[in-house]
Design goal:
With about 350 residues, the chain is an alpha/beta fold. It is built from 16 helices and 15 strands. The strands form four sheets. A five-stranded parallel β-sheet has the order 4-10-9-5-6. It has a five-stranded parallel β-sheet with strand order 11-15-14-12-13. Strands 1-3-2 form a three-stranded antiparallel β-sheet. Helix 9 links the parallel strand 9 and strand 10. The longest helix is centred in the N-terminal third of the chain and has 13 residues.
């Protein structure tokens, strides 16, 4: 399936250009040195591929942030077909674009898979969507979990997804389940994964077509890539952050942050040095993501800078996965990690420091 003219333009380009384009899509902006190290292409071949991509207006260049003497190359956002919010469709697929391609969703083609991540799939889903169950496939011990490589390969392969598939995810609510799975797939370096903006809430509210019919899918082999721990924070990372300038963001509700509600842990409150930016601030009531300025403003107000090293958490890593998508993918913040252990892990540790607002003022 094609969401823009970018894929058509790539067809006429040499293999080096296609390879570089895929790596820039997966890894984000890189210098020529970074591209040669990642792709193992020679400098001359990499320069040729970049030249062809720039001629096709698929890639743009700018001075590298940390060294103005170097050039940084990135995907040209408008080449991917921005939606009304200004976000490229290589990340966020508009419901209107999906609605217009329902016949393509319903084909058994591993090149493209639409995936619903919810427990209400049997009640009706977008035609052509296959099911991932958040409780069965991504939960353990009362919280969200990142499947092992073997388990992920089984889950995805059974649903006709290969490592080269374009995967578009959506879920009920405001896409929190889907965003968590998006983050999991990026953790395992899946090249092309996107969210359906607005998810099931927007789709059904606008009376777009649904069905209870399950699509016929041919199982395939899924080749799992090495994990990218640059987007995941572990307990030790959070512990280390308490004595560094890493910015910790609690995305739960203010009541949870203050320790005024029940939580899946022995302790209530929050991790010390944490600022609170509620996860609902990144989405509109309709379920669609906020426009860029509205998306960023709550974080600016909380003193979060785009160049900060940022660790996000909630109770189980799901809501923080949605905020990770907003900051890392939509806004392009370069150093954002999701602590998927979140409060379920931290709040149950015997020796982990916990604070409430009263302690913050002491």
């Amino acid at each position: 399936m094609q969401f823009s003219d970018a894929e058509d333009a790539l067809e006429d380009l040499p293999p080096s250009a296609k390879f570089i384009f895929k790596e820039l899509t997966r890894e984000g902006p890189m210098t020529l040195k970074g591209i040669t190290e990642t792709t193992l292409l020679g400098s001359r071949t990499a320069r040729y591929g970049l030249e062809k991509l720039q001629e096709a207006e698929l890639v743009e260049s700018s001075p590298a942030i940390h060294d103005g003497r170097q050039t940084c190359y990135s995907i040209r956002a408008r080449s991917m077909g921005d939606d009304r919010t200004g976000y490229p469709e290589r990340l966020l697929v508009s419901p209107e674009a999906a609605r217009d391609r329902l016949s393509e969703f319903e084909t058994d083609d591993p090149e493209f898979r639409l995936v619903e991540v919810s427990s209400t799939y049997d009640e009706g889903h977008v035609p052509g969507a296959v099911e991932l169950d958040p409780e069965r496939d991504f939960s353990a011990g009362g919280g969200r979990t990142v499947p092992s490589a073997e388990r992920l390969a089984s889950i995805l392969g059974e649903r006709g997804i290969t490592a080269d598939s374009t995967v578009v995810l959506y879920s009920d609510g405001v896409n929190a389940f889907a965003a968590f799975v998006y983050w999991v797939l990026k953790h395992y370096r899946h090249r092309d994964v996107r969210l359906l903006d607005g998810g099931k809430r927007y789709w059904t509210a606008n009376d777009y077509r649904t069905t209870k019919r399950e699509p016929e899918v041919t199982p395939v082999e899924y080749d799992v890539q090495p994990r990218n721990d640059g987007i995941r924070a572990y307990r030790d990372d959070v512990q280390d952050a308490l004595s560094t300038d890493v910015t910790l963001v609690d995305v739960r509700s203010p009541e949870e942050y203050r320790g005024e509600t029940s939580v899946p842990a022995r302790a209530s409150g929050h991790i010390p040095r944490t600022v609170n930016v509620e996860w609902t601030s990144v989405v509109q009531e309709s379920g669609r993501f906020e426009h860029r300025e509205a998306l960023e403003q709550p974080f600016v107000d909380a003193g979060v800078d785009e160049e900060d090293e940022i660790i996000l958490y909630c109770n189980v890593g799901e809501r923080s996965g949605l905020v990770w998508f907003a900051l890392s993918e939509l806004l392009g913040y370069p150093h954002v990690r999701n602590y998927d252990g979140s409060w379920t892990e931290w709040g149950n540790l015997v020796d982990a420091p916990v604070e409430t607002p009263e302690q913050d003022r002491d």
